[in-house]
Amino acid sequence: MILMTLAIAAGTMLVMAVILSYILGWANKKFRVEVDPKIEAVLEALPGVNCGGCGYLGCSDYAVAIVTDDIPVNKCTVGGESCAISVAGIMGVEVGKTIPIFAVVHCGAHTKDRLGLTEYRGEKRCAAAHQVAGVQGCTFGCLGFGDCVIACNYDAIHVVDGLARVDYKKCIGCGACSKVCPRNIIAITGFHEDRIPTVACSNKDKAKDAKSNCMTSCIGCKACSKISDIFSITDNLSKCEYGAYTQESYDDALKSMEKCPTNCIHLIGKNKAE
Fold this sequence. Notes:
Strand order of the largest sheet: 1-4
Number of strands: 8
Low-confidence stretches: none
Radius of gyration: 27 Å
Distance between the termini: 81 Å
Structural class: alpha+beta
Order of helices and strands: HHHHEHHEEHEEHHEEHE
Shape: elongated
Number of helices: 10
CATH class of the largest domain: Alpha Beta
Strand content: 5-15%
């Protein structure tokens, strides 16, 4: 009796398995969504790291956008030029000019340069410290607890003497560090040359207040903008027009750096961590 019951149960399970397999096979064919072969080919050419540096959630979304929305093929910062060439070949389009992009930290103050620095005993994260009033005199500067370091998957940014510094040999411009910085002082910037000048400051306070909080703060004195057209002053802060910088403007940029009274203009780029 027990053997017969087991046999019936086994037979019933076998029949159900066959029926369900048939139903699933039918449903797979009936409701299958055909994927454009170009999307699959582009996705195969992309690196598959899903870093979001292209501005999309991942490689799959970017591949779909390239094929269906005519999005430029050179937005993958991880794959770089070789990846762009491969995707362009699949799409039958020109690659276009590819400008490498990297992270730029708009702060140059190490711990010793910060005035009005107080002891912080809370969670050692920038996001947490940013919520505490008076944690340091400058409310625009790097907090130095390394949220950007944790976010970077390429070991391309480190905190040195309280300041985030980018290793341009490793940075791919994915933007992960920029997204987690609570003070928005890390920008993803196109480098038209291997090395470009940058204003290592984000302080928009007037000169007197800026100087009282930081020894390397921009004071909006306009010395740089009087020498080089790539610099301009907005809200008491010097800004560099990276797209306007060329090798020909190098000499004027160096003169602006030398003229800066607080030494807040630096050259950054390949072969140097900043």
